[in-house]
Every structure is written in structure tokens, then in C-alpha cells.
Design a protein that fits this description.
Glutaconate Coenzyme A-transferase; single chain; alpha/beta; 17 helices; about 500 residues; globular; nine-stranded mixed beta sheet; about 30% helix
Length: about 500
Amino acid sequence: MSRIPAGLQSRVMSAEQAARLITSGMTLGMSGFTLVGYPKAIPGALAASGHAKNLTLCTGASVGDDMDGVMAQAGIIKRRYSYQSNKSMRTLINDGSIGYIDMHLSHVPTFINRRMGGIHIDMAVIECAVITEEGLIPAASMGASDAFVRMADKVIVELNETIPLDIVGMHDVFEIGTPPHARPIPIVHPLDRIGVNFIPCPPEKIAAIVVTDRQDKSPSFTEPNEVSRVIGRNIVGFLRQEVEAGRLPENLLPLQSGVGAVANAVLQAFADGGFRDLTMYTETFQDSALDLLDRGIVLGATTCAVSFSEAAQKRFYGNLAAYREKLILRSQELSNNPEVIRRLGLISMNTPIEVDIYGNVNSTHIAGSAVMNGIGGSGDFTRNAALNIFATESIGKKGAISCIVPMVSHVDHTEHDTQIVVTEQGVADLRWKIPQERAELLIENCAHPDYRPMLRDYLAQARKTAKSQHTPHDLKQALSWHQRFLETGSMK
């Protein structure tokens, strides 16, 4: 199978030549999601030349250092949408050098398709495995690439020859359209295929093709420690209780899992949890999910991207023909779509930075001001899932930080949306609980023993001083823990 149609061979050029098509002030839509499927040659060429400045960069989610890092360090990015995890990019965002807008991932393609707020994609830069006469077959992530290609004036393709051709057939691309003429999404099971396996793109829209052989740098996953394993066992134990009580079926509901070490450990716990015939409808598919698939515990999954360690990546690409029957790669407009999430009745599992005693969740900011990565898809899933779980270690920085606090320093998910909170200490089921009941559950079941007396004291003081007793707070002390951490390096 040829990767480039004969009629497009004349548009093959170097990364340096293609980068010259990008000019100062442009808005770029670049492929990539959780460090997979992002262009690498064009960002490097842009950074090296420095000819194009004040660029607005929009991606589906996080990308690697050879994109976000080099472009941030070159000083050519003015604004960044909508999720990032790169240290250089984060530093410049937090010192005010780069403007950053954090968005729910399901909103990104919707806003682009409707040109909401006047945003317009001047150039889409997309990593692909194959170009056909009909369109583009992406790498092992979809992100918002279909929206970028659809709405951009022109497209630059990075054709990555290291991606096995067996990836053809894994994608499922479906155009929803825009209100008032948006189409219903006919997904009633996680493994339903509803579209085509390529991103439609007329040949005349392709301005340049850059052939590359640079692989994605695999994310590094911290091996689960005993604390994260206990968190996983606590979640599996809670779900088993829900099954025994008749509130969940034996094979549960489709699972969604966030990214990171805790999320990976939680999925590992399902291997020994006694569950079978599971499915997943998620935005990222990690190592532990691949293990569950190989063991037959998970039958199949929809995901927006596969994000594997180097060893798991080799296993995945070495058996693509088999995995193609069990994995579907969809855009974030579908993987994170509230309509589908609610219809399928997902079990959503995500990791917060901190949770306050009434159940408000901070997923994005350190001490209220410094953004970490972004809200990602946690809001899409939390608000619409049949059951949502936030799982975190009860303390951070070797005990200097409590992850259960009097009041969160930034709110991403309100108490109205939070259902279950899990730490290595235990489980707090907040459903149908009044605020003061939630506070007592979170303190006694989820807070670390070192911080429980402080939390009890705070709640008692709040009850004494608050004018209203519905959700009592002592506003003079509510954020004192964060202030103490900023001043001394510890919340104690």
C-alpha cells in the first residue's frame, strides 16, 4: 500500500520548506493527544527558524517536548489551547509569557467547528500514517484532528513512515455537524462503528507533505507503589459492593480512566478484582488497560489515543492487526461527548489535585494560581457519567500537603457533581449526603491520620463562627492551609 497518492507526490518537501508556509500571527491546529500522534518535524523547523512569531497553538491534548517544549523555548507561541503537560510550556504559562486557555476537551472541536469566539484555524499540521485520495489516516491518536482539517484553510501533513500500515481500519470518523442541524450520534455500545476510517480532506487542501521517521517519545509511568495499589483495591471493593447491592451489573458499566500513575494502578487492580467481560469508553488507553485487554478481562474499547510505555508500545504495534478488532480510535468530539457518555452510563475514574471537605474538586491548579496541566476530559466525564470516582493519595510531597483540605484553592468540579472520593485511607460515598455529612465522611474515611485532627478542628470552628449552618466555613481560615504551605513548604 502506497502511503502517498501519485497525484500528491509533488507536494513532498522538507520540514524547513513546509514551515515557511506558516507566518506570524497564524492560528495552528496540530494533531496529538496524550503525547501520541503529534507532529515533530514542523515544530522543530519553526523553532529553529524563528521566522513565524505570535502563534496561537491549539491541540487536542498534551504533546511531547519536541513540539510544545521546543516551540515554547523558542518564544514563538503567544497563546495555547487547550491542555498541556510540558514543563517548559507550563513555566511560561505560569510566568505570564504565554496566554493559556484551559477548556473541556469536548468543547475544543465544538468551538472550532462553530468558529465560536471568532477562532479560525489558518493551518492544520497533522501526523498521519497514510494519505489517500479521500483523506488522511492518522497516527495512533485522533484528538481534534478532524475538526482542524475540516476548518483549516490549508493542511500540512507529517507522514510518519514508522507507523505500521496495519493501523488502517482502527479509526472511526463521524462528522456530527453543528446546531441546529447537528446529527444524533448512533453509538449504543462502546464498540459500535459509525463512520469512516479516515479524516476527509480534499487533495487541493494539502499544502505540503513532510515525510518523517521520528517516533513519539513514550510517556514514563511510575510503577505503582503500595499506596496506589491500596487505592485500586478500595475502588474495586467499592464496585463489588455496588454489584452485590444490585446497583451495577456483574460486568459493571463501560469504564473511563484518566491518565497517570494512580489511574494506571487503579486499572491494574481490576486484573485481580474478579470482574470479566468489561468494556471501556475512554479518552486514553494506557499500559494497564492493554494488559486487561490481553487477558480478556476487557473485551474492547473506544479511545481517543493509545499512550503506552516503550515496552507496551512495541507490543501494540507488533500486534496491530489483532488489536484493530478490539480498539476503536475516535476524535475527542466523540470520545468525550456528553450525549454518548450519559447514554452508555459510564463509570468515570479521575485523579484530583485536592478535594475539600464538602466535595469540591481541584484538578488543575497548585495553590490556586499555578496551572498544572488542565481540566482535560475530567469535566466531560464527571458531569455525565452514571458513576464518578475521584481517586488520589491522601497526602503529597511526603506529607507536606493534605489532598483533603478545608476549601479547595481552585474549583473545577463542584460538590454537586462529585459522587465518590477514594484514597488509600478509604471510600467516601457522597451521594445523597448533606454538606456536613459529606465533610464528616471525607475527614474520617479519606483524610490522612496526620491531618484528621486539623480538619476536625476546622469543621468545629466553622460550625461555631459561620452565620449559616448549611455549609459552614470560617472564611478567615478556609485557605490558611494553602497560605501556610506557600510560606513554609508545609500545610501542617
